[in-house]
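Student: Send me a single protein entry containing the residue sequence and its fold in token form, directly below this note:

Tutor:
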Amino acid sequence: MPLLALGLNHRTAPVGVRERVAFASDRLSAALRDLLSRGGAREAAILSTCNRTELYCGLREGDGGRVAKWLGDYHLLRATDLQPYLYQHTDRRAVRHILRVAAGLDSLVLGEPQILGQVKAAYQAANSAGTLGALLERLFQHTFAVAKQVRTDTRIGASPVSVAFAAVGLAKQIFADLPKRTALLIGAGDTTELVARHLHENGIGRLVVANRTLERAHALAASLAGYAIALDEIPNHLGEADIVIAATASPGLMLAAAQVRDCLKRRRRPLLLVDLAVPRDIDPAVADLDDVYLYTVDDLKDIIQENLRSRQSAALQAEEIIDSQVEHFMAWLRAQDSAASILALRQQAEAARDEAVARARRQLAQGKSPEDVLNILANTLTNKLIHPPCAGLREAAAQGDVEMLTLIKSLYRLDGRNPCR
């Protein structure tokens, strides 16, 4: 059965196109069943994220044109509008593609781990919709195992490559005991939310969120078991904090050097400050104070670039693993093909046997001697069984097809002498 991976992603299509072919999770089951009924797929799964929409199919036919047409029709798009952005991979290339996707090698951020969870969700949705067959079931299970191997055997995801994650990585380097520490976050935007979630996942002891809009600070803090304060309350809580991370859109400073100096008088432990804002939220003069570590977004970018180089090196190792694992899957696929051929050959031989035996029984019932019937049976079976290779040998010889002659001789373990006359 031909295997197809068809879709578009952040490299081939702008967001305006990607959003038009995205699949809502509550409509995924119906879409999958429709793909099987109208799109030429025997089995199917759909991976739909903000960065990609991909259809993985076991096809009824060898051509993926029907699947591409279905994708456009389903989203009310003309083929000419969609075709320039699509890529299509079959068989070996399709296997390699999904392995690279699940390992984070095809992601916007190299090695990001979220995509594996999204691939698993696509598998679960297809499984629930009843659109998985033996081919895709095996492919997805193999994909999950390979993605785990890549994560285990390489450092593809070990180094942070986002500003938010890098900030938390710094905190972990400076404070090995995060569960005993307090973090004060200034701002409640998207970057701060990512920082807060990373800190929460890494077991931060206490989380305080300060924001100009107290309701927004409350919403973020409450979701992560923290508490919220207004911006003018920062001086009262600064002394409690071990980690301060600021990321606002304010045009002026949110934290002055004098405030930090006053705070240090009341404490005898290091203070980490990370300024993710442009323009800056934290007075640069803070860096001159004792027991203070101040990092700006530019400092983190240097760290991120170094980590990206580390991930790129790990990606080369990951590609080697994937090359090997593509071969393993293709070997399994070839084994399935041979099993089907063996079954067909056996059924053909058994049909010939049953026909010959039935004829022999009729001859015995008509009074023919058992010896004659046995001879006829043996000759009939022999002729039926050797007819296909003999016909193949004659045809190959007539056409001068040396490769086919060699293949048939090898298949039937011939010693070079043609037993057919």
The chain is about 55% helix and 15% strand. The first strand starts at residue 3 and ends at 9.
